[in-house]
Prior knowledge:
The structure is a single chain. This protein is α+β, with helices and mostly antiparallel strands and about 525 residues long. It is built from twelve helices and 17 strands. The protein has one domain (about 5-40, about 85-520): FAD/NAD(P)-binding domain (3-Layer(bba) Sandwich), CATH 3.50.50.60. The strands form four sheets. Strands 1, 2, 5, 6, 7, 8 and 17 form a seven-stranded mixed beta sheet that branches. Strands 9, 10, 11, 12, 13 and 16 form a six-stranded antiparallel beta sheet that branches. Strands 3-4 form a two-stranded antiparallel ribbon. Helix 1 (about 15-25) packs parallel to helix 12 (about 500-520) and helix 5 crosses helix 12 (about 500-520).
Amino acid sequence: MPVKTYDVLIVGSGHSGGMAANILTSKGISCLMLNAGPEADYEKDRALKHAYELPYRGFDKPGRLPHVFQANEFNANQWVDEKEVPYTCPSDAPYNWVRVRLLGGRSLFWARQSFRLSNLEFKAAEIDGEGENWPISLEDLAPYYSRVEKIFRVAGRKEGWPQFPDGDFVEINYPPDTDSIKRFTQIATKQGVGVSKWRSALGKDGLASSINLLLPDALATGKLDIVENAIVREISVDKNTGLANGAHFVDRHSGREMHVKTRVVVLAAGCLESTRLLLNSKIGNSSGVMGHYLVDQMYGVSVVASVPEARDGKAPPGLMGGNAFIPRFRNLSKKDKRNFIKGYCVGISSGGNANANFFPLYGEELQAKLDSYANSCVSGSIFGERVARYENHVRIDSEVKDRWGIPVLHIEARDTDNERNLCKDAADTIEEWFHDAGWEIICKTDRVNPPGYSIHEVGTCRMGDDPKKSVLNKWCQSHDVKNIFVVDGASFVTCGWQNPTMTILSLSMRASEYLAEQMRTNAV
């Protein structure tokens, strides 16, 4: 029986892989999707249990997921087990690499924050005075953003601010702001800072994932086959042409080695997994840039204040509750220069409680304090943009292998004074707003979680017009191997302060339509 050859092999099934499958199959192109894990079986894998029924009382077995702060014993089976698939990093520079190998990947668990990048990010070098611009602009990607927003049903409020590009939003009726949010908005607006609302994907039937918005249509064409529990080890190359001709993969359970033939390879396994596969395959890196410029957002800066008139349960109706969102407002032009480049957004939430570690008390005295401050708190936190630097990189650690014998990644990423100065500015600014509102500051930190914590890692196969300074062209196509496309976050040049999902989806859509046309004309 002849071995089936597919037009396109797609590695990964999350947002970027799902979009690639959706677009390519709609053009009549046959695709095979390999996913490293199974489809989630909610009947089999989900159960309701009390904490006392679990061996570790909900805290999970020590050592299994040391870098996944989001993990506990209730949800540990959704994350990649770091004992099966480890990675290494310096002891003085921890990195949080959070992975999901279920069908649909991390699209099953994202927070649905849905922003466009602006030309402050696409053309950042012009404002920052350093770094590289993307080879595309907002105008190039805007039509794809619009189509993605319609698929994912993004809800938001249009503002007309260039640093916060409007989109094709579902109109929703936001509830009236509470008095505490109105007070905050008044303070920020007086300082020339725009206050808006979060923009979020509503999805369909309570889910905004590849598995319900992208893959069903692709499967309905009859042009998509999906193989689960298939761990791709290496991209194979035709020795005569230098082009990719398939991939070697391993069955997750049996360890059986297999190979699939294909005309084109589309990598959508997530930024670092796609880069790991290319590095292990030893292809596509004539520039020496592959693995470098790893970047993500900073989380952790936080200021919490208490509204005095809301304490001791005395808050009048309409005072507490609600939220506000402030898009980037620092370094919007060359004239607005501070002791850092890039910027950050701020999320405001009203009506929370104080944490026990806010007060140097214990016992009955602590409990009385917590009761007094209950529901009186307003908090502010940020998403801050890190700078993409060559020295922040990943490489193969050939001495450490995963359960299937595949060499793992070594990850090195450190913050600098630029990140520290940005975080200090953010904490000081939020504190000033809260102080001006007449609220009591009860917690302030300008420290951030380790790189990777945001689960928004991007940039290790950056795009660019110059093959000597980039890995991919503006179509997410390898400069070196023309029939390899990388459609996940690895292509990013800068990370922005924005959650990257809308940009990843839009880039994948754009690249897939370009690929389809290249295949139609036999250019690939």
